[in-house]
Amino acid sequence: MPTMMAQYSRSPIVKNYLYRLAERQKPIDTDKWYYLNANQFPDHLQNKFIQNSLDAETESFLENCYEKSDWVFTQMFHNIFRVVLGWFMSMTTVNGLLKRGSMFVFSENQFLELIGERSNTFRGDTYIDLGAGDGKTTEKLTKYFNESFATEQSPTMQWRLKEKGFQIQELEEWQTNRKYSMITALNLLDRVDHPVKLVNELRTSVRDDGLVVLAIVLPYNPCYETGTTFRDPSQLLPICGKTIEQQIVSLHDNVFKPAKFDVVSFTRLPYLCEGDLSTDFFVLNDIVFVLKPRLGDDEASVLSPDAQCRSGLT
């Protein structure tokens, strides 16, 4: 019925809204958001894979996306200001100013399962979220740590982070001040200019008994936001393979292993983002890894900028 009504509507706004209502009536196959073919993984990775599914916290985020998408006049206001401000601000800064475009990667329960905690009694000392955005993805984690830090390039996003209790660290200094019991780098490796440098900084900045929680969108398609434009990053990670499963194996063999990280666990989750007037929400394929430093290795823990794929994948 909404589709039929949209065909006869003269108002573009009403037409768009009715089409979105029609789309909502179609069932979403959320199982595919979480599926990986574990049979394609070697033995040392098969037992590290955690199969997830849609949970209550993720559903709540989606419901919020539907609600915000229906705020027609707010969305129109956002679209106008995005166009105007986009001439001299990055989209990240604009989103921070407008309090829009929040992301969702994992629920609290999914996070605890990934790090091997079956209850909420986990407690850590120092935590830092790199490229934290507005902090909505990770503010749920701060209660587990004595101190919570963050890095973020956008000034407006820094304001949002301070509102949530994060202490801001400078981009070039976060790794020199202290070592952390947990570092999160969510969807950052494919969005920074020097990802190899970042991987090495993660390894040298985490405590020997600490963890790194790293998320990356696969298939690998890196770009770097500089001001109001995007370009190719100066460095590329040695990730090869045509399927997501092959690229996961390549990440292990060509990135984590040379950097002296061991994989504790990994999973596939939907990387969700609030939508706009035309789309309720956006979704990408996210692979989330929990890594721990490999100890007792005399060889320097450095991933070479010239590293090549060595797993035989093409």
Key terms:
2 domains, 314 residues, alpha/beta, two-stranded antiparallel sheet, disordered N terminus, 8-stranded mixed sheet, 11 helices, Rossmann fold, globular, 10 strands
Strand order of the largest sheet: 1-9-10-6-5-2-3-4
DSSP strand content: 15-25%
Dominant shape: globular
Oligomer: single chain
Average pLDDT value?
81
**DSSP E strands, number:** 10
Structure description:
This protein folds into two domains: 1-28, no CATH class; 34-293, Vaccinia Virus protein VP39 (Rossmann fold, 3-Layer(aba) Sandwich). It contains eleven helices and ten strands. The chain has helices at residues 2-8, 12-24, 43-46, 56-69, 72-85, 91-98, 108-114, 155-163, 174-177, 195-205, 244-256; strands at 103-104, 124-130, 145-150, 167-168, 180-186, 206-217, 224-226, 229-231, 261-274, 281-293. The strands form two sheets. It has an eight-stranded mixed sheet with strand order 1-9-10-6-5-2-3-4, sandwiched between helices. α1 packs antiparallel against α2 (12-24), α5 (72-85) runs antiparallel to α6 (91-98) and α6 runs parallel beside α8 (155-163).
Fold blueprint:
Elements (H helix, E strand, L loop, with lengths): L1 H7 L3 H13 L18 H4 L9 H14 L2 H14 L5 H8 L4 E2 L3 H7 L9 E7 L14 E6 L4 H9 L3 E2 L5 H4 L2 E7 L8 H11 E12 L6 E3 L2 E3 L12 H13 L4 E14 L6 E13 L21
Parallel strand pairs: 2-3, 2-5, 3-4, 5-6
Antiparallel strand pairs: 1-9, 6-10, 7-8, 9-10
Helix pairs in contact: 1-2, 5-6, 6-8
